[in-house]
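Quick one - first record:
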Amino acid sequence: MEEASVRRLNGLQLAFIGDTVYDLYARGRALEEHDESVRQLHRRAVARVNAAAQARAFAAVEPLLSEEEADVARRGRNAHSRPPKNQDPGDYARATALEALVGYLYLLGRHSRLEELFAAIRRTEEEPPCRK
């Protein structure tokens, strides 16, 4: 997408694509780190792609953001969406901020910056438990 088009997208539109990109990151990481059945890999990915885990991931990258990136994350965090009843509204807002940021960087083709942020997240993540 052209930069002007990406900049016009609202926070929820950016989070829409960012959710999928983040899910792909989580699935790729599970596959890279574990030689397990697809069912187990799926459970590991799901443990990383939920509001609480993404809120923690956002906390890891928030201090590293440029002013532009922080503005995009703020748009995502402040977007009017209803969290599912089983999710903490604060965690859900921070997760949406992360997804909006990821979507923004992805659509602009800033893949090296995404990799930097994913590396920062990786350094702070604890291995999610995997139920059998």
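second record:
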Amino acid sequence: MDWKLELVILPVTDIDRAKAFYVDTIGFHADHDMVVSDDLRFVQLTPPGSACSIAFGKGLTTAPPGSVQVLQMVVADADAARQELIDRGFDPGPVDEQPWGRFLYFHDPDGNGWAVQQVVYPGDSGG
């Protein structure tokens, strides 16, 4: 039996601000934005190429905004990912070189933390 992680709920303060950040700044695809009732709004976004999405909205979680630390995405090239973010007007800072990978780190407007990793295998020059 496959066990697939397909959705992670993020606690946010301002739904529209979070959606604009993830779609316009980071480049996630907007899958759904549904107001189900006065007490329930569901926004689902997916990183390009990912099988796992994030969701946030109204009535989805009682966790405090910014309390999710650290979600991790994997990319083929950390430098290209960094440049893509810079081209979108967001500078995540320098690439952090580690023996097990090359990383970018950033936080959303509420403080939820992200890592972006380029996996580095033994003998690989990294970048």
